[in-house]
Amino acid sequence: MAKRCKTAILISGSGTNLQSFIDRVAEGELALDLCVVFSNRPDAYGLVRARNADIPTACIEHGDYPDRESFDHAVIEELDRRQPDLLILAGFMRILSPAFVNHYEGRILNIHPALLPKYPGLDTHQRVLDAGDEWHGSTVHFVTEELDGGPRILQGRLRVDPSESADALQHRVQAVEHQIYPEAAGLVGSGRVKFRDGQTWIDGKIADEPIVRTYD
Ligand code: GRF
To answer: In the 8-state DSSP scheme, what is residue 63?
Structure first.
């Protein structure tokens, strides 16, 4: 059997996306080796999820470091003990330094709750409702130095009900994330999707547009 892609998942909180990876791997639907779950917060519930699944955990608190660079350096040292092929940001609430992004160039994925390039940044669900958009969703993308700006891989979209609350919309978008994030990571882990020259390549071709899945 081919070597499984060694994957580190970085969290700061509840870790529902992490759980979707754990479940897919357990069900044999996702061929990743989840080698470590890393948190910058010791009380992140995602660490409990990881321990329950017998995945190694690591925690370094950013408050123990004087600046972003020294914290990121410590995280690199910790992660590199496991030699990950792929890093999954799953609610990791830290902006990464250029040194960190460059160290793992083309090997970091993020999920952002909007149909990028629309709505980078915070508060996306309310902004979508305020704008009266027909579609909303979430985007898996490679991480570059530009926040929420790296090349896109896969989007999951759903139709907005203009009468729903931002909380209800967020809930629906999260359910979409739990589908698309493992799928996108699996495509990268298997080598079908690659980052090269600042772009996403799918099956050997430059992909100007992401793969799009539509959900109810
Ligand atoms: C997700 O909704 C994702 O879009 C954002 O952070 C959230 C993490 O949620 N980047 P969880 O910790 O996986 O539940």
So the answer is: G
180 lines ligand 1 (CB under 6 A): no
Q: Residues of the chain whose pLDDT is less than 70?
A: 1-2
Residue 173's domain comprises 110-216
What is the number of the ligand 1 atom nearest to the C-alpha of 112? Answer: 4
Q: What pLDDT, on a 0 to 100 scale, did the predictor assign at position 77?
A: 98
The strand pair at 5-11 and 86-89 is best described as parallel
Q: Could you tell me if 7 and 93 lie in one domain?
A: yes
- Rounded to whole angstroms, the Cα distance separating 64 from 145 reads 24
Terminal alpha carbon distance of the chain: 36
Question: pTM above 0.90?
Answer: yes
CA distance 35 to 5: 9
The number of the ligand 1 atom at minimal distance from the alpha carbon of 46 is 12
User: Do 76 and 10 share a structural domain?
Assistant: yes
For residue 29, the domain's CATH number is 3.40.50.170
Residue 137 near ligand 1, beta carbon < 6 Å: no
* Among candidate residues 153, 146, 149, the one with its CA nearest the CA of residue 206: 153
